Amino acid sequence: MTHRLSYASRREFLRAAGVAPVALPFLQGLPALAGVEPAPPRQRLIVVFSPNGTIPKHFWPEPGPLAEADALPEILQPLAPFRDRTLLLKGLNNQIRGDGDGHMRGIGCLLTGIELLPGNVQGGSDTPAGWSSGMSIDQHLRGFLQARPDCQTRFGSLEFGVVVPNRANTWTRMVYAGANKPLAPIDDPYQMLAKLYGDTRDRESLRSVLGSVQEEFRRVSDLVGEHDRRVLQENAQFVHDMHLRLEAEQDTAELDHPVPDLEPGVGESDENMPKISRMQIELMVNALACDFTRVATLQYTQSVGGARMRWLDVQEGHHELSHKPDADAEAVAKLTRINRWYAGEIAHLAKRLDETPEPGGDGTLLDNTLIVWTNELGKGNNHTRDDIPFLLVGGRNPRTWNVSGGRAIDFGGVPHNRLLMWLAGAYGDDLQSFGNPDFCGDGALTGLG
Hints:
Blueprint: H1 7-16, H2 24-27, E1 44-49, E2 64-65, E3 86-93, H3 102-108, H4 137-146, E4 156-162, E5 175-178, E6 181-183, H5 189-197, H6 203-220, H7 226-252, H8 273-289, E7 293-300, H9 318-322, H10 329-355, E8 369-374, E9 390-394, E10 407-415, H11 417-426
Parallel strand pairs: 1-7, 1-8, 3-10, 4-7
Antiparallel strand pairs: 2-10, 3-9, 5-6, 8-9
């Protein structure tokens, strides 16, 4: 039996076969070019962030089996179709202390599990801080997978954003390539499409790319089977359709969101946020199906995010509302709508993954993908980082994630570092610690499978 080709080997094979560079992104992830079957399933991770905490009484169910769909907490109701694949993890606390305000430590330590570096970014009355002092778990897994020839992908990881301000500070970054190395998400769908497939911004460049790709498809048709030929055609059609969709949106409204130079906490207004979210989700699902990456993040706005979600009949900024007292019923109702909207986007992502067959068989993309939806705070009006919302969806293939869904678990207040360790262990990287080792002494979480 031959070995699976590494990403570099696949690229060299295609080049030796005379395939033009413009077609390489479409071809390198095909199962037929990754070695003979059976191949190990493609295990994927998506981390999704939304800001400003949640409304606990409308988010957390009672520990144990999840209730019937119509009895789920109000925020979670959009996820009812995936109830049996959903796992709620309560009692995970971000116990990282040190410099920075609650929001800064909330997002900057969320995926790194370690303190912020000293710096000059001032938040409230807390001591100023800088970037995180460690790598985030998604980037750790990126490096772990890229070191394995059978798991190498073109990008290693992809960082998507929706209405993320251009300004770079501790409130706006959750992904870190290492200490003092924040990675900015791409929140312009045009830029992400160009990253994935090259310059397709205008009709002429798109026509050139698709024309060249169609010619290359004919050249390699004898190297791949019927399934892969169908994947290639669907891929080319996706790029064409996405371009037309972006072009149509561009004709009616500017997709780029306004990025005023505002202090954190001042609300941005963006009616295009729902459109950008759905486009980014389509691009992400396509990138995973093409095996461009197996690790992705999707960041909505930022910590202290102040988006004004007028399409939900919410005129105030999200962060402004999150500081209202629990007795303010109107604010609670609006915050519940906001968080329910985010749950709806998670549900749409899960639906699109579940509608997409796993290349080469073995179920759907959702079966081999774990979505982790999280937040920088447990609750917005007291800035607590206890009971950080962690919701897991998908991953029911026992050959990959093997997550036993349909449950809510209360861990009783343990460091969230232990979840980060579990994520690494699920990939086969059994870490003794991740982030600050002081919060890792009891090892990775158990009981999720």
